[in-house]
Amino acid sequence: MIGNVAFSWSSKKESVVALSSCEAEYIAASMTTCQAQWINMLLMELQLMKDEKMELRIDSKSAIDLAKHPVAHGRSKHIGTKFHFLRDPVNKGKLEVRHCKTDEQIANLVTKPLKSSSFDYLKMKLGMAEASN
Fold first, then answer.
1. CA 67/CA 86 separation, integer angstroms
2. pLDDT of 1 over the 80 cut
3. Does residue 53 sit in helix, strand or coil?
């Protein structure tokens, strides 16, 4: 999101098979980082934005730990090298990876079955409103 506006949305079948939910979240975070950096560079080129630290919110603490502390994770050897792209901006201080509670994760609006109260709350966070006739 830029400010309170969703600037990009993607949903697709993954091209790799993850062996754990941590790995799936880590791969998704890496792909998101690539897209966010590209959009950030475009906005800077158009002089609509300055080079600022980006924030990536992930609801998997183990994926966040894997991004921040790669040395302690011998079990991540099987993850494709291209997905470790995420570590570079984190180490350079260009990207801050933060935990986001699952019930605050806006993507759940379109990816999971929700109670109506949760659905309405996430709809409000995204800035969606009921259409009037």
1. 7
2. no
3. coil
Distance CA 86, CA 89 (A): 6
CA distance 55 to 108: 18
Fill in the amino acid letter for 57.
R
Per the DSSP assignment, residues forming a β-bridge with 96 are 55
How far is Cα 125 from Cα 105, in angstroms, rounded to an integer?
Answer: 10
What's the token pair of residue 113? Answer: 């079955």
Amino acid at site 74? G
According to the model, what pLDDT value does residue 131 have? 67
- Amino acid at the residue 92: K
The separation between the first and the last C-alpha atoms of the chain, rounded to the nearest angstrom, is: 29
Q: Is the confidence at residue 75, as pLDDT, over 80?
A: no
